[in-house]
Amino acid sequence: MTDVDDPADHGDVADPTELAERVRDGEFRLHELDDHADRASAAAARRRLLEAETGADLDAVGGYAFDAADTEGNVENLLGAVQVPMGVAGPLPIDGGAVSGERYLPLATTEGALVASVNRGCGVIRAAGGASARVLKSRMTRAPVFRVAGVGEAERVVEWVRNHRETLREAAESTTSHGELVDVTPYVVGDSVFLRFGYDTKDAMGMNMATIATQAASEVVERETPAALVALSGNLCTDKKPAAINAVEGRGRSVVADVEIPAAVVEERLHAPPAAIAEVNTRKNHLGSAKASSLGFNAQAANVVAAAFLATGQDAAQVVEGANAITSVEVRKRALYASVSLASLEVGTVGGGTTLPTQSEALSVLGVGGGGDPPGANADALAEVIAAGALAGELSLLGALASSNLASAHEQLGR
Amino acid sequence: MTDVDDPADHGDVADPTELAERVRDGEFRLHELDDHADRASAAAARRRLLEAETGADLDAVGGYAFDAADTEGNVENLLGAVQVPMGVAGPLPIDGGAVSGERYLPLATTEGALVASVNRGCGVIRAAGGASARVLKSRMTRAPVFRVAGVGEAERVVEWVRNHRETLREAAESTTSHGELVDVTPYVVGDSVFLRFGYDTKDAMGMNMATIATQAASEVVERETPAALVALSGNLCTDKKPAAINAVEGRGRSVVADVEIPAAVVEERLHAPPAAIAEVNTRKNHLGSAKASSLGFNAQAANVVAAAFLATGQDAAQVVEGANAITSVEVRKRALYASVSLASLEVGTVGGGTTLPTQSEALSVLGVGGGGDPPGANADALAEVIAAGALAGELSLLGALASSNLASAHEQLGR
Amino acid sequence: MTDVDDPADHGDVADPTELAERVRDGEFRLHELDDHADRASAAAARRRLLEAETGADLDAVGGYAFDAADTEGNVENLLGAVQVPMGVAGPLPIDGGAVSGERYLPLATTEGALVASVNRGCGVIRAAGGASARVLKSRMTRAPVFRVAGVGEAERVVEWVRNHRETLREAAESTTSHGELVDVTPYVVGDSVFLRFGYDTKDAMGMNMATIATQAASEVVERETPAALVALSGNLCTDKKPAAINAVEGRGRSVVADVEIPAAVVEERLHAPPAAIAEVNTRKNHLGSAKASSLGFNAQAANVVAAAFLATGQDAAQVVEGANAITSVEVRKRALYASVSLASLEVGTVGGGTTLPTQSEALSVLGVGGGGDPPGANADALAEVIAAGALAGELSLLGALASSNLASAHEQLGR
Amino acid sequence: MTDVDDPADHGDVADPTELAERVRDGEFRLHELDDHADRASAAAARRRLLEAETGADLDAVGGYAFDAADTEGNVENLLGAVQVPMGVAGPLPIDGGAVSGERYLPLATTEGALVASVNRGCGVIRAAGGASARVLKSRMTRAPVFRVAGVGEAERVVEWVRNHRETLREAAESTTSHGELVDVTPYVVGDSVFLRFGYDTKDAMGMNMATIATQAASEVVERETPAALVALSGNLCTDKKPAAINAVEGRGRSVVADVEIPAAVVEERLHAPPAAIAEVNTRKNHLGSAKASSLGFNAQAANVVAAAFLATGQDAAQVVEGANAITSVEVRKRALYASVSLASLEVGTVGGGTTLPTQSEALSVLGVGGGGDPPGANADALAEVIAAGALAGELSLLGALASSNLASAHEQLGR
Questions:
Q1: How far apart are the C-alpha atoms of C123 and C269, rounded to whole Å?
Q2: Contact between chains at A290 and C286 (C-beta distance less than 8 A)
């Protein structure tokens, strides 16, 4: 009865309405409900309380399919769940480094036309014989910032780091059974020293692993040098901010997908000649993005990344970096070549939201749930499928823009 | 029986297993299922098919609470739903331009610690007497790109646009009962002319409204000038790409939230003195982000934006622009001032995913569901609450970073 | 004798060697030399002093052609002059908004091959019948930053500014006989309010004019609102930093030059077919710059801008913004179209370095020295010529890259 | 008489007026003058010609001090020289990695107040006991772009490059006696492969050396892999464009200068307390630059870089990258700490414009002319002095902004 961590012990107080009243009476607080009831009852109590306080009806939110007890690592102050419609696009034939064959891509979204658009692109890729895809770099990063006295001391810390990579590797890897520290890059701004640690985190997206390992390595830096840790993340990581360092050097998976499509297929399915599609890509994705001073040179990569992330239990806030994508299109002899290069796609097939029931099912559809063989192969495969899906989305939208203008041009000429 | 839009007519073919077989037999395709059955049965058929093809089990995905028929505007090739755990933070007292009083903030996420972190920040803000928030600009944009012969012609088109704003306004507004065309800004790159149309879309996020209105206005431009439309979106909008034009000029709502916190509150609740928190903000959010060439100068704004977007039915891909945020912290006399400025937060309380049951309930918790009075007030309020929530997240994380290093410093000193 | 401003009074102490000794004896300081001698003698004394202190020989530096007394507005602690070789490219036929006909472009540089490269590009443009050029926007900006209590106050200041543009215009224009305040755009970041004042400064580059006028307007803002001025420049101007706000909204002159070149001319003079040149432009200037997260999408615009700035007495530090250029190339029917769009070219034909003898002569070569008729026409013309010169540089370098690879390809095939 | 390279042979045709007439008569072209006369006479002829064609008077331009024959590597179509006033700031005491002791900094500029401003900053640094400075990275880069068939081939090329660095090093270094290839970093965008070659170029700025060496290495890549060279520079270098890759990874010298100034010195010399100067830095250089989406977070670094570059014969177009600077200011106990971090300062003390008489004299003033001991030491020293000079400029301008607002505040209070 005194063990607040065991939901079984809370049977006696698990009436949501009563619990809600006790919170209203100030006996304990909203987030302390989990100490007085199992997570499901606590969630129900929160819904009662919010219904009373705000007049909202939370029936649908309360109708979730997962086991509340299993979401401890995913959310606090649980209310229930939001349900996002999930559709499917494909099949999408891919010749990748980690994936080979046809895949269906589950996409969760509330924006009409998105799934249809990607699906149309998949059809184009199928008619072209399939897309290629490759993960070219895989590195989860964390970059603490340290304070030093000045640039003289900064130089000595940088020197120490360069000469003690093995020491740092040992400290970092002592905290993880899977992760490997691959590189440490120092950056100096005045009396701030940033160390960007890069890890191979296998099938995990790896932020937690990287953070814990970097904490251990940072303690060594603090002990062995005059540097004092100011923040375990100094924004050179860069997590969930649209930063050029990710666009240039990558984060998570750097992955490219491409396809060469016969001109006849382009015309038949996208209703526009290759040259028209290339023109839209140049004026919109290259010149327009350049003029907008954008880090994204694509049509709708973020749409596909966001929908695939939601469906498969990835971190939705990391759509920010996923949008650092460049789409290229070129007219080749009787064909159209198109590619999407995603510099910083952070994905995992273990941990985070991947173990929740609906998300886990979506990963099963892709055939990439859980740890891969060899480790990392599943997350690589997921990255390649998302990249190929993004390519499908680009082709479809570029085609739609090109063909609608051609149609409008014909109309005008017809007058 | 010939009316494929009426689900009632499809009773005879609505057996999912049979439908799935017919797709496998090539009788019709995955996306044509909706022509042969009601949406719910079609979704069930798709699940059967994918289960057969991939070995996945899609039970949880099939256990959705919304009416499949109601998701026609949200998704195609419906499979079911992904369920994302939803927690709640707050209450959060806000003195805003459109919101006043305490609000609970629903957050949907799979990343542990996020809701707890925002909740802690809400406690700090409560202890400080509440946050302020203001929407300072509201403008949904769409920027088509036109082809001209060269810069001479570009100059004439720009001139025409500057002299015919009223004509363009009439054409644009003829397509919408709510939207208002507020400005049109021309940009020229060689023989490409971009026109950035800015709309007041009231309580709608407004992308569709802006797109349709801009289509109408673009037809006028094509008719009256030598410019030829190449793409209805020329990426100067900029939608779902991390672009400086949004960070500078805004898109959707430009909203700022701030708070002044007594030093004693800071120390008691964040376990660090104001100066330590300011130092973390400077080295991480300013110097670190500067060195990373980032458009985001904050700690975790995207986390809060993403979780609030998911909970309330916003477009998850627009988290990309939502992350264009600047956090400022300064030590004042016996207090800490902190602010978050979100340049391009695209939100709506009508349309899109806002009408789905769980999302609609989350909006009700916030008291901002549906159209506002006056129009636009609800979306303004939502923007202000999200900004205040982002502020809570910043305070909490900056405090955690500062206090953990102080703790570690004490530990070291204690040795 | 007590009038330190009259050089004539200093005859008795104007012996450089003696002056240098008095500085070494600590009687007065290096920069106080001008109080004890005419500027030429003071400069000579400084040279003696530095020669003695550093062992350097400053004969060449002392051999300047201008009148030292005339450089009071250009430099302090005068030593003499640096001599930068000046070459000439052209003639360059231009159909511009402010310039019409052929122009020779003086270029000062120490980098071999630059003048030859631009000259070759001029030949291509001549063979194509000339380039077009247009100044599409002209606005010198200055953006002070003010401190307010918080976002509530920020909103009121922004409101006041929007309602009192005429008041601000009067205050600003009271300080200048030529400048006109065209717009004021407010930006808010937490408790910082930035006001970007945009001026038409006619033939002056206009930074000083804009600064003085903004100072006057800022005093009104401080008097009429709770805002307190923190810095007369808050970096949203943005002067001499590579900022997206300039790339997007422009600063100084936004100018575009373009040309359509018959395919035969391209092949004969650039030794590569149009498609090869377009490919280099796409892979280098678009994809490469995109991957580098660059604000410059061109081959060598900064080379031409820097050399023309030096030759004509512009501010060399403003080459930074001048490099915000986008080059576009497209294959047209039997022709190559090429353009250069310079977003923020800050130029003037009066004031600054334009009145020095050699710089003034260079402006005369261009036919744009001094004030234009109407005012602004000369600076517009200068911007158009520089843009056309930049276009020449782009064509030449793209051609050289394309042809050298073709040559190397042929060589390989020949083996 | 047939040896057109020997000026002595051209005595008979060296009359400028006659030469000019022959050009006007179409006998030969402007740039062919060097084939018919010595360079000085050819330059004189060009001046005659331009005077005749444009009405300009080119006497001052013709009054240059260098030997025309010595400028063959610096300029073509020589006219004469532009003379830019040179002043001096200092002395500036520096404790650097390559420089130690006091240095005078020659600055060439036409913008009044700049030298005075830097000089005032030098006084502050002197009173504080001197600045520190360190070159933390030194790497001249060149990044060719290659075409491959698609991402599969791209992966194989990247793999080859990673496994054959030694082969590439040998090829690259076979072209240079001084340069060393330090690293090669591959980047892939679709079917474009960029290889960023990084060299230690010792005392040379090194662009030419890097280009020639990279040409040789690229030929090996072409021979050994399926990659085809498209352009020897693919803009990931990035030369003379404001690119984040340089701000993040550096180019030329990455150098930091800093100083700690007693509060009393700050107040006495900058007329503002440390906190006021820190506030200006935060609101202007951090928040303002962040809002402007700038790559430069400083007050006037480009002014000092440009003036020092001009004085010492550096490439003026590279001021673009030199402006990628971050200034940090913090209030310490009874002191102000300030730093300037220049990510990509491309400087040399041999080659380019450094051998011209006036520029060479300026380098002598600094004591860094010619090759250093060890090689690279002179260019390092030059970078450190420029960084310290930039720091002086920052302190002076931040102080001026802070004090003038304080003065104005006092004035207002006095009313």
A1: 8
A2: yes
